[in-house]
Amino acid sequence: MHCAFIALILPLPLLATQVLADGAAIIAAISAVSNSTLALKKTVTNFPSNPFDDLFDIPCLLVDSATLLTDINDGTKVADASANLTLAETISVASATISLASVVESTLKTIVAAKPKFDALLIVSPVLLVNLLLEQKATDAFGT
Fold first, then answer.
1. Residue 110 burial by CB count (10 A; 0-12/13-18/19+): exposed, middle or buried?
2. 3-state class of 97 per DSSP?
3. Which DSSP category does 18 fall into?
4. End-to-end C-alpha distance for the chain, whole angstroms
5. Chain centre to alpha carbon of residue 135
6. Alpha helices (H) in the chain, listed in sequence order
7. What tens digit of pLDDT does each residue of 70-102 get?
8. d(CA 85, CA 19)
9. Domain extent listing, the chain
10. What is the DSSP string of 35-63?
């Protein structure tokens, strides 16, 4: 009886926010970040040596970078909403994080190697730098 009364008093959105994420949700968020990171790496790898040859690659690069930032921020929200993890969930999240670290390291090396391609387009390098700095800040928040 009390539960029915509480359900009538409390608004539905408030009840919905009480659902906590779990290890599987965090792993899914890490997977989304990993997939976005790999998409960015692929775009950077395929970026033409002479970017003036295909200016349509620039929006793809910026969209992939922005998507990665969004996925990192979404992952932070999932992790923040999570209850304490069980030991098994903690081990699974740690394993997913280790895998993500290798993907990020490889992608960063690819971006650094491709930087001369972006430098020819005066505005692209500063925009990518700002996105990378935002991604670093978001990643720091995701990791805490």
1. middle
2. helix
3. T
4. 41
5. 8
6. 2-9, 12-16, 23-46, 57-81, 87-119, 124-142
7. 999 999 999 989 889 999 999 999 999 999 999
8. 14
9. 21-142
10. HHHHHHHHHHHHS-SSGGG-TTHHHHHHH
